[in-house]
Design goal:
By secondary structure, this protein is α+β, with helices and mostly antiparallel strands. It folds into 2 domains: about 250 residues, PPM-type phosphatase domain (Phosphatase 2c, domain 1, 4-Layer Sandwich), CATH 3.60.40.10; about 100 residues, 2-Layer Sandwich (Alpha-Beta Plaits), CATH 3.30.70. It has 12 helices and 16 strands. A 6-stranded antiparallel beta sheet has the order 1-2-12-11-8-9. A hairpin with a 2-residue loop joins strand 13 and strand 14. Helix 2 packs across helix 3, helix 7 packs antiparallel against helix 8 and helix 11 crosses helix 12. The longest helix has about 35 residues. The protein is rod-shaped and about 160 Å long.
Length: about 425
């Protein structure tokens, strides 16, 4: 195979774990298998007529994120009708979110649908079924259940049954009269104490559970749980790489153990419980808020700086004259932080050297008016200095030439 062909080849299904010789499930008459996946969960299902019964009365529904298993009762043209009506009704009435109360209501609606179908001549009188349903939404799973079909959760290698059988033998187990293993072979194991199809007031058990990445959910009819122990279900579920392999291996184990009943298994793996995504969204939201706060603070700081700059005034050098500036002398990122707002005719050379040095650094004033008053004072000082210099010059000239001074005085008279 060339490198290009290797890249184009589809990913191979993980190899099934080796085990004991079992009845093959592929290609069997009366069997059905479905698998699929999305970004949150993957699933696989298999239903088989078994090795004793002549027809399959089980039904299952995979309508992501809803999964339902139903075990029909009442014989040919009855049990399969009841279970089919039940799963379709639950599918139609199930909520869009993991709300166990509404899911329980959907199962109770399915009960009335089975009763009304029998009254209308659909199926047979007395037909009924069990229902075990789950609806998975991120890290929450709603469960609604009636009868002796079961829901299990496999977490970190440990299998836990989360539903309670509505059966006579379960009551015996609860009272301590028999063990769970004895219940699987008890002669009264087929007696159901609560099911769809007989009592209009029937109610469904319903509750919610938290599920996490890596959890495996198993729904099954009693064709599995009555044939193999929970310990064997756990071992097969742990050793199966994919949901479809797990469903196939569990059905094969039930057939190998005798296949005395129809057997249906639905397996769902939780791939993404949404917790990490929610954490990332919260982090992003916090980062966005923090960024907004920082931007707002920077904007406020900028506005404050601009306001501060525009409230400052100083006198500085404007070429060879004195200028009036608004702002703070200097630059920020190459941008001048002041602007020339007033010019004058005051020459720097007419001012004392100390004043010239101060003007080179910028002489702060309180306002534009104060700045113009200082410039006027410079004018006054320069004019006064010029007048004083003229007087000194005149006095010096008079002292050096009295006749000229006297003549000037006579002319002035």
């Amino acid at each position: 195979m060339t490198p290009a062909e290797a890249q184009m080849a589809p990913a191979q299904e993980p190899a099934n774990a080796p085990g004991r010789a079992e009845v093959p499930v592929e290609g069997r008459v009366g069997a059905d298998a479905v698998s699929g996946a999305n970004e949150f969960i993957s699933w696989g299902a298999r239903s088989d007529v078994g090795l004793v019964r002549g027809h399959n009365e089980d039904s299952f529904l995979l309508r992501t994120p809803l999964f339902v298993v139903s075990d029909g009762m009442g014989g040919h043209a009855a049990g399969e009708v009841a279970s089919s009506i039940a799963v379709e009704t639950v599918g139609e009435r199930a909520p869009g979110t993991a709300d166990d109360v509404l899911l329980g209501a959907a199962v109770e609606a399915a009960n009335m649908a089975v009763i009304e179908a029998a009254e209308q001549g659909i199926g047979k009188p007395g037909m009924g079924c069990t229902v075990t349903s789950v609806l998975i939404e991120k890290n929450k799973m709603a469960v609604a259940h009636v009868g002796d079909s079961r829901a299990y959760v496999l977490r970190q290698g440990t299998l836990v049954r989360v539903t309670h059988d509505h059966s006579y033998v379960e009551e015996l187990v609860d009272s301590g009269q028999i063990t769970a293993d004895e219940a699987r072979t008890h002669p009264s194991r087929s007696i159901i104490t609560r099911a769809l199809g007989s009592d209009p007031d029937m109610y469904a058990d319903h509750f919610s559970l938290e599920v996490n990445d890596g959890d495996r959910i198993i729904l099954c009819s009693d064709g599995l749980s009555s044939m193999i122990s929970d310990a064997e279900i756990e071992a097969l579920a742990v050793s199966s790489a994919t949901p479809q392999q797990a469903a196939d291996n569990l059905v094969a184990a039930a057939l190998t153990a005798g296949g005395a009943d129809n057997v249906t298994v639905v397996v769902v793996d939780v791939l993404n419980d949404g917790i990490a995504d929610a954490a990332r969204r919260r982090l992003f939201h916090r980062a966005a808020i923090l960024s907004g706060v920082i931007v707002a603070l920077l904007a406020l700081s900028l506005l404050f700086a601009v306001a501060l700059v525009r409230s400052e005034w100083y006198l500085g050098v404007n070429g060879t004259t004195v200028g009036l500036y608004r702002g703070i002398k200097g630059e920020f990122l190459g941008v001048p932080t002041s602007e020339l707002v007033g010019t004058s005719s005051v020459e720097l050379s007419d001012l004392p050297t100390s004043v010239q040095d101060q003007l080179a650094q910028g002489i702060r004033v309180d306002s534009e008016e104060a700045g113009r008053e200082v410039i006027d004072s410079y004018h006054d000082q320069i004019n006064a200095e010029k007048d004083r210099a003229a007087q000194i010059a005149e006095t010096a000239r008079a002292e050096s030439d009295p006749a000229a001074a006297e003549q000037d005085g006579g002319e002035q008279q």
